[in-house]
Amino acid sequence: MESLGGRALRSDAERTVRTILEAAERVLSRDPAASMEQIAEAAGVARTTVHRRFASREALVNGMSAWAARRFAEAVAAARPEGAPPMVALYQVTANVLRVKIDWSFAMDRARDGDPEVARVHAEVLGQCEAMFRRAQESGLIRPEADLEWARRVYYALIHEAAQSRDEDADVLASRVVDTLLGGVGTGRGLT
C-alpha cells in the first residue's frame, strides 16, 4: 500500500491520490501556474478533496515528485539491470526511464534531492546504474578503458535530452540513446 507523508492509505484513498497526482501532472505540465481548483476539476474531484490530501500547492508538488521518484525506481527495477543481459538491461532501463520522465516531466523536473524519499530513490538508482555499467564493461559492451563515471554521466545527459522529445515513442528514443552512447556520433577518423 502506497504511503504519503509516512502514513498508509486505504485503496480507495490511494486511487483518489493517484487520480489527483495524474491530473496535476497533466494540468501543471500545460500551465505551471494552474490553480488547485483547476487540478481538482481535471481530477474530477472537489477542491476540498485535493486540499484534504494536500494541504498546499507545495505539498501537492512535493507529493508529485515523491510519486514520480517511486515510478522512476520501479521503472529501473522492472528492467532487471542486475540480471538481464547487459545490452537488454541497458535498453530496457533506458526505455522505462524515458517513459517515466516523459509522463511525469513536471514532477521529475521539480524533484529535489533535499526530499529524503527522492534522495533515497536517486541513491538506489545510481547504485543500480553503476552496477549495470560495470556489467556492460565486463561483458565487452563498453570498452575496458572507458571511464564508467563519465559514461554514466553522458548517458544521463542523453536520457535528459531524449525526454525533451515528448511526442516521440520512448522505444525509438531509447534506441537512439543506446546507439549514441555505445557507438557515438563520430566516425572515429582523425583520432590517433
Structural features, described:
- This protein is mainly alpha-helical and 192 residues long.
- It folds into 2 domains: 1-55, Arc Repressor Mutant, subunit A, CATH 1.10.10; 61-192, Tetracycline Repressor, domain 2 (Orthogonal Bundle), CATH 1.10.357.
- Helices cover 70% and strands 2% of the residues.
- The protein has 9 helices and 2 strands; from the N terminus they run ββααααααααα.
- Strands 1-2 form a two-stranded antiparallel ribbon.
- Helix 2 (36-43) crosses helix 3 and helix 8 (148-163) packs antiparallel against helix 9.
- The longest helix is centred in the middle third of the chain and has 23 residues, at 116-138.
- It is elongated, with a radius of gyration of 19 Å.
Q: Which helices and strands, and how do they pair?
A:
Layout: E1 3-4, E2 7-8, H1 11-30, H2 36-43, H3 47-53, H4 57-78, H5 86-103, H6 105-110, H7 116-138, H8 148-163, H9 170-183
Antiparallel strand pairs: 1-2
Helix pairs in contact: 1-2, 1-4, 2-3, 4-5, 4-7, 5-7, 5-8, 5-9, 7-8, 8-9
Core attributes:
about 190 residues; Arc Repressor Mutant, subunit A; two-stranded antiparallel ribbon; elongated; single chain
Shape assignment:
elongated
Helix content: 55-70%
Number of strands: 2
Task: Please identify the structural class as seen in this structure.
Answer: mainly alpha
Question: What distance lies between the first and last C-alpha atoms, to the nearest angstrom?
Answer: 57 Å
Count of individual domains: 2
